[in-house]
Amino acid sequence: MNENTSAVSSSTPDNIDWTNLDFLWTVVINYGGKILGAIIILILARWVGKLIEKLISKSLAARKVEQTVIRFVGNMTSMAILAMGVLASLSTLGVQTTSFVAIIGAAGLAVGLALQGSLANFAAGFLMVIFRPFKIGDYVEIAGTQGVVNSIEIFTTGLCTTDNKDVIIPNAQVMEGVITNFSSQETRRIDLLIGVSYDADLQQTRDVLTQAVKSVEGVLEEPGTQIAVAELGDNSVNFVVRPWCSGPEYWNVRFAVLEEIKKQLDAASIGIPYPQRDVHLYQHQTEA
């Protein structure tokens, strides 16, 4: 019995500083919960960031947004949530985060001033992703340029004009100006102004124009075509002719309607007058 007791006592170190152990135990008791809470906050922030990134990616993919934009928006969202988690965890540990926020704010201000134009384009691109005023394949007019949208990037939007030229427009100019989307509706109205001679019979002219429009393939029966006298011009009586067609067939139908109207008016001997001027000559007799 004495031998076992002596063995146990000999195996126990004699130089243990129980004061330091008490100090460590006090630190664990006082700060262990805060450290654990900070770790949990970081883990939750990363998990929530990844979850929201996936939700945003699925939502944007369902709306057929470019993959580059999807990845960029998702990564930015995840990083922003993680940054907030880091600040929250530091605050849990008792670290004053006011200075960090001030430094981040100052750095953000400096970067914002240096990249003012790029940030404006990025913000405009982000708004385009949310509101979607047009999509790839739409025929639009943006910043005075008409064309088919072939790319929607983070900073720029690309158009392909009817004469096959690529036009790159900064997104800030896209959102600041008027956007006309010719492809958003299934049908479009063709607006034509046809002038005929003052000698022409109005009813006959209206019948000829109606027959010309009806004979063109692609003109829709509903809504009906509007044909009316619009104005009495200087040289002609001007009729408005407003047929409807499907959006993709707009130009083909427009050209065909104009050609058919010219043929029908010629066949009916209804003149399309040129600009005219009346010149009056006066003779003055002078005394010898």
Characterise the protein shown here:
The protein has 288 residues and is α+β, with helices and mostly antiparallel strands. The strands form three sheets. Strands 4-3-2-1-5 form a five-stranded antiparallel sheet. It has a three-stranded antiparallel sheet with strand order 7-9-8, covered by helices on one side. Helix 2 runs antiparallel to helix 3 and helix 7 crosses helix 8. The protein is elongated, with a radius of gyration of 39 Å. The N terminus is likely disordered.
| Number of structural domains | 3
Mean pLDDT: 80
User: What is the global morphology?
Assistant: elongated
> Topology as H/E string?
HHHHHEEEEHEEEHEEEH
Helical content class: 40-55%
Proportion of beta-strand residues: 15-25%
Supply the key terms.
elongated; three-stranded antiparallel beta sheet; disordered N terminus; Alpha-Beta Plaits; five-stranded antiparallel beta sheet; 10 strands; alpha+beta; 288 residues; 3 domains; SH3 type barrels; Helix Hairpins; 8 helices; 17% strand
